[in-house]
Write a structure and sequence with these properties.
This protein is an alpha/beta fold and about 325 residues long. It folds into two domains: about 80 residues, Helix Hairpins, CATH 1.10.287.110; about 210 residues, no CATH class. It is built from eleven helices and nine strands. It has a seven-stranded mixed sheet, sandwiched between helices. It has a two-stranded antiparallel ribbon with strand order 5-6. α4 crosses α5. The chain is globular. The protein starts with 9 loop residues before the first helix and ends with a helix.
């Protein structure tokens, strides 16, 4: 909940400064509990966030650990050296290569690569005209960056997490990452997944809030005016035309904290079955299939894979 580059810090959730005293934090916690309690007309997701924030910084030990891990100033006003914070923080750096020798899904392309490159270019530009930063993933630096820069990192992390999940599904699955789906590099399709249950276009997102749905689209404050479902379907159509294939369904993957339930089925949108899933439920959905999606089997699976392999280009 508080580990996304887009999410508010525990201090922001409680409405206090990172230098607040323990008594100030306790008073703010009690006030925010009353303000967000569902029985008083508050928002249930905000109420949960307030409780989680208190768990993180409500005790001296918990607060010290949280500050070390998230690059906040110490209670005495001094800053924590990044080298110390880095020992407690591992969520935003690029993932290290895994040594797992179990059979993996066939994987092509670089998941999250385009957005990580854009993030690194923009964070250096924002921090000082291309200055060579000691660590561009310093939590304090990331937290202070403009939202559009933090969003690039959040979405890169989301894509990497989806790629890891699909990879563990085994050799029966094939996935292409960062696929060209338009004239601009930003018009990419995050993942194309071919499985025995169907062919899917997959978008990985992180909105740092619980989303809602209206008329087959995702809505919420963190959407920033975008239309994720419509965008995904449009990019899938580009790939389908180029490869002469038919997608069986569309999947949008969100962090578990962004969804009230594991799987939300939106039905057919513009003729394509669409589901929005928690990251922890993605494996189940890909194995069982999107409701209403057309199965692919036998020779057709090999034909579709060949068509995609010959036509897909990467950003």
């Amino acid at each position: 909940m508080f580990d996304s580059p887009l999410s508010a810090s525990a201090y922001e959730v409680l409405g206090v400064d990172p230098t607040a005293t323990a008594d100030e934090i306790k008073r703010a916690f009690r006030l925010r509990l009353r303000q967000t309690h569902p029985d008083a007309g508050g928002d249930a997701s905000a109420f949960i966030q307030v409780q989680r924030a208190w768990e993180l910084i409500g005790t001296p030990e918990g607060r010290a650990a949280y500050d070390r891990g998230h690059g906040f100033a110490t209670a005495s006003g001094g800053t924590i050296p990044f080298a110390d914070a880095a020992q407690k923080w591992s969520g935003w750096q690029a993932p290290a290569p895994r040594t797992d020798t179990r059979p993996k899904a066939r994987s092509y392309g670089h998941p999250g690569g385009w957005r990580r490159e854009r993030y690194l270019a923009l964070i250096r530009e924002w921090a000082g005209h291309g200055v060579d930063l000691p660590d561009p993933y310093d939590p304090a630096l990331v937290r202070s960056a403009p939202r559009e820069v933090r969003r690039l990192l959040a979405d890169a992390l989301a894509e990497e997490a989806t790629a890891s999940t699909v990879s563990d599904l085994g050799m029966g699955f094939t996935v292409w990452h960062d696929v060209v789906a338009g004239p601009d590099a930003a018009d990419k399709l995050d993942h194309v997944v071919l499985s025995p249950s169907g062919l899917y276009g997959v978008m990985s997102e992180d909105f740092a809030e619980v989303v809602r749905f209206r008329r087959g689209e995702i809505i919420g404050r963190g959407i920033d005016g975008r239309a994720p479902v419509a965008t995904l379907l449009a990019r899938m159509r580009v790939i389908a035309r180029a490869a002469k294939v038919r997608f069986g369904g569309a999947i949008i993957v969100l962090p578990d904290d962004d969804l009230d339930q594991a799987v939300t089925t939106l039905g057919k949108v513009r003729g394509t079955p669409v589901v929005v899933v928690r990251r922890s439920a993605l494996s189940m959905v890909l194995r069982q299939g999107v409701p209403g999606a057309r199965d692919i089997g036998g020779n057709e699976l090999f034909d579709v894979r060949t068509r995609l392999q010959h036509s897909i280009r990467f950003v």
